[in-house]
TrEMBL record:
<keyword id="KW-0133">Cell shape</keyword>
<dbReference type="Pfam" id="PF07478">
    <property type="entry name" value="Dala_Dala_lig_C"/>
</dbReference>
<keyword id="KW-0963">Cytoplasm</keyword>
<keyword id="KW-0479">Metal-binding</keyword>
<dbReference type="InterPro" id="IPR011761">
    <property type="entry name" value="ATP-grasp"/>
</dbReference>
<keyword id="KW-0464">Manganese</keyword>
<dbReference type="InterPro" id="IPR016185">
    <property type="entry name" value="PreATP-grasp_dom_sf"/>
</dbReference>
<comment type="similarity">
    <text>Belongs to the D-alanine--D-alanine ligase family.</text>
</comment>
<dbReference type="InterPro" id="IPR011095">
    <property type="entry name" value="Dala_Dala_lig_C"/>
</dbReference>
<comment type="function">
    <text>Cell wall formation.</text>
</comment>
<feature type="domain" description="ATP-grasp">
    <location>
        <begin position="108"/>
        <end position="309"/>
    </location>
</feature>
<dbReference type="InterPro" id="IPR005905">
    <property type="entry name" value="D_ala_D_ala"/>
</dbReference>
<dbReference type="InterPro" id="IPR000291">
    <property type="entry name" value="D-Ala_lig_Van_CS"/>
</dbReference>
<keyword id="KW-0961">Cell wall biogenesis/degradation</keyword>
<feature type="region of interest" description="Disordered">
    <location>
        <begin position="1"/>
        <end position="22"/>
    </location>
</feature>
<dbReference type="InterPro" id="IPR013815">
    <property type="entry name" value="ATP_grasp_subdomain_1"/>
</dbReference>
<keyword id="KW-0436">Ligase</keyword>
Amino acid sequence: MKISVAVLSGGPSGEHEVSRASGKAIRDHLDPGRYDVVEIVWGRDGTWPDGLAATIALLGTVDVVIPALHGPGGEDGTVQGLLELAGVRYVGSGVKAGAVGMDKDFTKRALAARGLTVADDLVLRPGDEVTDDHRDGLGLPVFVKPARAGSSLGVTRVDDWSDLPKAILTAREHDPKILVEAAVRGREIDVAVLELPDGRLKAGPPLEIHTGRDFFDHEAKYSDAATRFEIPARLDPSATALLQRTALDVFDALECRGLVRVDFFLTPGGHPVVNEVNTFPGFAPASQFPRIWAAAGLSYPALLDLLINTALGTPIPS
């Protein structure tokens, strides 16, 4: 008997199109001999197909949901809460991990409390100002970013303090709460973590990002042909093991489920600094997460099988 799977994509965040690409890739790679697939596209304007009540009723008829959603409203625990109220199993982290993982400020607090290293930053809410003491403490350059957005939307590198006001306005187009973050010198390394159906965790081979830009911005991620991923990254075995252990620590600290991608800076001294956490990372075939596992010998369809089996082994929320 086939397993019924609902693939949910879209949503009202700035990552609507990225989510649609993830959803399409997932649907295209689900084995039709094993799965009956239902497509649900959440509108960019926040509307649901045939209404929210009808969507909830439809979700209640499937065995498992893959919420291929990125950004606020989808990756932040909101939809996960809806699925839990409906008593539906789903792939990925729950409400708490999603909410904390979506907010870069709260993520950093949780990880720092576990003794993990994160970049120094200043949190700005509406009405807050950057003082001379703040500037002296952070130094230049800094990165100004929305606290709750992904895909590097609204992120600006600031090399001169005179450019800070404009960068703040750009970030606040996506979130009133923003971070002014000290730059970290180091190699950009991603590590993917999978939860296996028996509960064991596995970290994949580290991926190094190579880009000719000032940083891995939105264009570098999605439209710059010069961007290159190297898997496995050229690291000595001890550095690889340290990054993988740290990624597993992040998974545990945030109480993630199913999968996570942890983005690091690896300093010249070999120390990992956690940059960001993605509780449901991009899932197009060219995205880092599936490419990491492909390099580890796990094909895209097999990766989906594993995620679904893990989700089906999770007790239905009560």
